[in-house]
Amino acid sequence: MNVNSIRVYQVDPSKNHDACMKELEKAGIYLVLDLPNPEYSIDRTNPHFDIEMSEKYLEKIKAFIKYKYFIGVIVGNEVTNDKETTPASAFVKSAVKYVKSYLKSVNTGVFVGYADNDDPFVRENMIKYFNCGNDAMARVDFYGINTYRWCGNNGNSQIAGYDDLLKPFKEYDIPVILTEYGCNIVRPRDFKEAIVVTNGEAENVLSGGFVYEYSQEDNNYGLVKLGPNGFGVSEVIDGDRLARVYATPSKSNIKMNSYDPELKHSECPEVSDNWRVAPIDVPIPNRALCDCMFESLECTLNPKNSHTDEAKKEVSSILQYQCGINECKDIATDTEKGNYGVFSMCSPIQRASYIMNSNYIKHGRQASMCSNDKLNSKIIQNPKIKIETCMTKTESEGGNESNENIKENRDNKENNDNNSSKEKKRSGSQKKRVGNLLVLKFSLFTIILLVF
């Protein structure tokens, strides 16, 4: 099909992927991998990005980082999908910073992006938010849009709404790709929009796109139908038509020597009815801090499996009840005001234990205040660690593999705020990183999505 990149939503990081990645490399096909999975992803209605989720994200990266053709990750897919769920974007940005900090610590060129859902009420704020702020580690390397505006032979990009789609990116300083496209309302699909995406009037803005999707599922977006047990191709559906579009000779007049990285990152959107995220730095998970806090508690929850539906429901119930009768600022978040409790990025069990412990002490250490059979509550006599010790820990004292780099980035940010010459130096460094990604901009034109 003349493709050079695929987007993959789900993989099992515990498996060996050498054979698949070897075939992709032989074909010259790059991999962009989604990090969330159904169990570990940011819940748009009750958002958090905690230590457990962050470590699951890194598991996928570590499983693929050795492969030459592993080129990028997507930290969130349509997490905020309307104006009611904008607070969730703050935690996606925390994930961006966490992942980029780790990737920097292992000295890799893997890029980090986000995919939005093209919602008309929040899209412009989203576009700005993921590319704003002085901390380059909290800004995405590329921005993705899942869009199905162009259905059938709409004639041109203006009729299909692509002009409006791309307008906010005219002065954008990072690459933009369509992370999903290929409306199937009109069948068979003729993929006229693919010409615009890969070889037409949008090439000055877009860096390509992923057609949705490779294998036929119940939603009828498949390019091919797979054979029994997923082996082989039993039927080509829309794949041949897409291949013909991708084979169209390039009309591009863009030259690499015309690249001039003078654009600047975006201004953060202000809090409004349509955007409930304050423009401040969002903290990232810190395993050392959270574990220290847990070990300092006199009342803890210790379920055998904290990931069962029953355990999750009980933890949620504890948090809701306890935060209704006690002060929860240390584990709570308020994205609109920019408040993030010092332990708000800890695991649900750790946060529930923290507030139960506070209530236990508040009521004179009555045993009944530390009692929960479902989650195996336990009273600890004379914990070896004092909570004050945890509060003095720095992020570089163990815990996350990326903590040293995170501390370095924060220190750099503080210095940059007081030194304009250093800010110029930092901006230059970021331009170089954007430039490296834009080298790919001119090679990632024919892209398709594959799920395996």
From TrEMBL:
UniProt keyword annotation of Cell cycle present: no
Enzyme class: transferase
Annotated family: Belongs to the glycosyl hydrolase 72 family.
This enzyme's EC code(s): 2.4.1.-
Name of the protein: 1,3-beta-glucanosyltransferase
UniProt entry keywords in alphabetical sequence: Disulfide bond, Glycoprotein, GPI-anchor, Lipoprotein, Membrane, Signal, Transferase, Transmembrane, Transmembrane helix
Localization per Swiss-Prot or TrEMBL: Cell envelope; Cell membrane; Membrane
SMART domains: X8
X8 domain mapped to chain residues: 297-392
UniProt organism field: Smittium megazygosporum
Region (Disordered), start-end ranges: 393-430
PANTHER family recorded: 1,3-BETA-GLUCANOSYLTRANSFERASE GAS1
Membrane topology: Lipid-anchor; GPI-anchor
InterPro entries associated with the record: GH, Glucanosyltransferase, X8
